[in-house]
Amino acid sequence: MAFGWIDEQAELRRRAGLVRTLRPRAADAPLLDLASNDYLGLARHPEVAEGAARAARTWGGGATGSRLVTGTTELHTELERELADFCGFEAALVLSSGYAANLAAVTALAPHGSLIVSDAGNHASLIDGCRLARGRTQVVAHTDPDAVRKALSGHDAAAVAVSDTVFSVDGDAAPLAALARACREHGAGLVLDDAHGLGVLGDGGRGAPHAAGLAGAEDVVVTLTLSKSFGSQGGAVLGPARVVEHLVNTARTFIFDTGLAPAAAGAALSALRLLRREPGRAARAGAVARALHHRLTAAGLEAVRPDAAVVSVRAPSPEQAVRWAADCRAAGLSVGCFRPPSVPDGISRLRLTARADLSGAEIERAVQVIGDTRP
Ligand code: PMP
Q1: d(CA 164, CA 191)
Q2: ipTM, 2 decimals?
Q3: In terms of DSSP bridges, do strands 159-164 and 189-193 run parallel, antiparallel, or are they unpaired?
Q4: 300 Cα to the center of ligand 1, angstroms
Q5: Measured at the alpha carbon of residue 218, what is the angle toward residues 217 and 219, in degrees to the nearest 5?
Q6: What percent of the chain has pLDDT over 70?
């Protein structure tokens, strides 16, 4: 039978307790949300929703074509200008997702004969970028600039190091300044995925590279998602104008993909302008994460100290992690549950995300529920 092997895999998943299912979210969900990536609480902000609606009314439901044909509206170029300016880079290129942005950046900057040095904890989209690129990939120890330096030494052709700025599973940060130094010693480029740093770290949420003094550097390229702090959808690559021009001409996930939907561009632009007007939201998301960590630890739970808005809590086993998350849900709290194969280290955990608009009472309630339902 065609696809018969799928049933064997499904059975193995069932036996291992690793089956994933989709749970539709109701528009008026009464759950307390510590699972989404809506770090600044902007996804449902009236200004952001209105930005999406206005863009759809002006430009329509879709971009109508790839960016190089009909899919670049004035709204796209406005968003690119303002993103580059906000984060401190010369130019920006908007793509249909952060995933596409990572595939674009890594494949376009790692030609045949080049070396890619990739952190062992990188996001799946960076890993897939490495798999698609023509260069050779060397995976190095997590957050270890000396391992990057060692991998780069002795390689004479083009080279690039790639890393998340804030790792999506445990919320720990990469040592950006040391990574940049290691790359510079060897004339290598540095690609940083700031999906979890934008809107949370740096002056007013300008991101982790800005905080590390790397904004505008000629050897640094940053990828972003518009789907987390900016409460919308889409991705971007920021860097020197010549790098962006190179991507426009060579990056397949840019060239052969339909442009970002105008509604998503409009929502992201509204979120960006709102954050400029209310920069305190960024610091608040970080403060909420630290408060969550502090209270969880005080309750005797094993939580990783957060560097941005993600707080990771260790669970004893995949089965117990699943049950813990389900029990939280039954008690009115939505939390993320990460387990193998999403986590290569085999450690299952609850993944909590701080939001700038969480109140002190909501933090207390969340900690109470997590503590009461612990395995
Ligand atoms: N990079 C990281 C670190 C992420 O966590 C994500 C989203 N899970 C992405 C890239 C992909 O972004 P998008 O959802 O916009 O495709």
Answers
A1: 9
A2: 0.99
A3: parallel
A4: 31
A5: 95
A6: 100
Angstrom distance (rounded) from CA 214 to CA 26? 41
- If you search the block for the tokens 């052969």, which residue do you land on? 256
Length of the chain (residues): 375
Q: Looking at domain 46-277, which CATH architecture does it have?
A: 3-Layer(aba) Sandwich (3.40)
- Give the tokens for residue 192: 């940083």
Round to whole Å and give the CA distance between 239 and 245: 10
Total Cβ atoms within 10 A of residue 203: 13
- At 50, which amino acid appears? E
| Residue to mutate, 94, 122, 125, 196, ligand 1, most ligand atoms under 8 Å from C-beta | 125
CATH superfamily of this structure's domain 28-44+279-372? Aspartate Aminotransferase, domain 1 (3.90.1150.10)
Q: Are 31 and 334 in contact (CB under 8 A)?
A: yes
| Cα 8 to averaged position of ligand 1 atoms, centre (Å) | 30
Q: Tell me: the pLDDT tens digits for 157-214?
A: 999 999 999 999 999 999 999 999 999 999 999 999 999 999 999 999 999 999 999 9
Show me where the domains of the chain are located: 28-44+279-372, 46-277
